[in-house]
């Protein structure tokens, strides 16, 4: 490199050590270490900028334009795309559908996960075997889970859907084909896959609780419900908030299962924000409006993260004071 050369400089112990000289000035050990770390992290930084930051910046820029590919047009419209999210009936319904799905799925998964974690709390070979089996749904790709449940719940040939339709427990179009049951069925499918993940996080929190406090409470005559309400759950709050923030962010941007089962239908009953954004961008080629939807989702996830992080820190501080 021009202006940079390497030579060996004597150390205090008499052993020659490599020194880097830039423009006639020898770099110190701290400067060389800093340069080494910069060069070491440069490939990862370039990758993040090229794959994440640059497309994000382009998406933010596109959201201020009426940018369409068919017909081709580009015009600066300012915040009109964001205003359309509240004035467009389909966009408003998509926001409501996403909120309902997120709240229902996360609440159901938390209830099931907490129950499973309490059942698997004891360190027994049977509990360990059950935990290994419970992790199977988490390893399934969401798109595969959606395809499997679409086949299982199909009203004409599905192993479950056929008997539900013939017995009158579902409409002739199946659970996914009825606007009144499609969203709740998606919530159940999502809960089947991700409740074990919630249980795993909560179980890790339960395993870290000090047993001496629980044993002292039991010796004092506290019932199991009292121990859970007054000791276990308050000390478990950091793990609870961690599980909630991870699942809330993931459920809010759900795409795979919806795309594989209903693709936003029937009658837009499952048209969540991610599906709506993909349709606007890849079907109607309305890139500007699709970018505004994506940016709204990023903003909502950021707000969720900040809120939950503050709650986690507060809960962790309260747990340490107990």
Description:
By secondary structure, the chain is mostly helical. The protein has 2 domains: 59 residues, no CATH class; 242 residues, MetI-like fold (Orthogonal Bundle), CATH 1.10.3720.10. Strands 1-2-3 form a 3-stranded antiparallel sheet, with no helix packed on it. Strands 4-5 form a two-stranded antiparallel ribbon. Strand 1 and strand 2 form a beta hairpin. Helix 3 packs across helix 8, helix 3 runs antiparallel to helix 10 and helix 8 packs across helix 10. It starts with a strand and ends with a helix. 27% of the residues are buried.
The description of the largest β-sheet is:
3 strands, antiparallel
Gross geometry: globular
The second-level CATH architecture of the largest domain is: Orthogonal Bundle
Strand content: 5-15%
Q: What number of structural domains do the residues give?
A: 2
List segments where confidence is low: pLDDT < 50 over at least 5 consecutive residues. 1-12
Order of helices and strands: EEEHEEHHHHHHHHHHHH
Q: Widest sheet: strand order? A: 1-2-3
Q: Average pLDDT, to the nearest integer? A: 85
Brief sketch in words of this structure:
This protein is mostly helical and 322 residues long.
